[in-house]
Amino acid sequence: MTPHHTDRLRRRSTSGPLRIGVLVSATGANLRTLLDLGRREPEGFEVCLVASHAERVKALELARGAGVEAWPGDFDACCGTASAACDDPRARQAYRARARAWHDELNTRLADWEGRHGELDLIVLAYHRWIEGDLLDRYAGRMINQHPGDLADLGPGGERLLIGKDPVRLAMALGRRTTRTSCFLVDGTRDGGAVLAMGPEVPVAGRQATVEDAWQQELMQKRQSDPFCLEWTVRAFAAGRLALSGTEHPDGSRAVLVDGVPTPLGGCRLTASSDLRA
């Protein structure tokens, strides 16, 4: 165990609803969860801004339909793709530099927006790009990511097994009988931040580790695990229930406290019957 002081995860605003910004990449299922929460409890939660790395994603249409300011992006045009640079160390380094510059520019734009409209309390990622640089620094302790893999599933060396772009299919290939969504605190690691909560387990039910079966499994997970995980985490953050403790788990991530009580790796492990307000 490595000693650290305890860090409580706090909102910036002291009154009014929790002000949420969302970075999106796809259909907007997680954004819909947040918008629905805001509609049910407008005094407690508000999605204020949505941004994407792409220009044509359904999540942006969903945001505009809800009356939320939505920013398209041009990441690939500016930066290229990671896959195109994967075999050349110099190309990878150049790609990362361009990606960091792109996100630094987004950070500048967010800072300007906050100067005119007020600070955001929390950034939620449902986002398919790695983030480095000023944006991470700006929202340290206030940026969470929805990841479609069980981040408490560790290898023999304590490493997280289900990281990266295709954790559902990987879990199925490893013979796991269930999959689930993890919500973690974003830091400078690759899917290595403190896990705040995990959604209900979703049975694989005989599906095989094929592209089609894995996609069907992930669709079920989006319905049965994602919304529970995200809503509980956002509620807990808004209520000031979350903190990082002074110890580390075997994977090197900070242990999470919920209401001052240490949790195992994976944070709060939810079931379909969990009370999300508790």
Automatic annotation (TrEMBL):
UniProt-listed InterPro entries: Formyl_transf_N, Formyl_transf_N_sf
Domain Formyl transferase N-terminal as annotated: residue spans: 19-206
Pfam families: Formyl_trans_N
Protein name: Phosphoribosylglycinamide formyltransferase
Organism of provenance: Kitasatospora cystarginea
Gene, per the UniProt record: purN_1
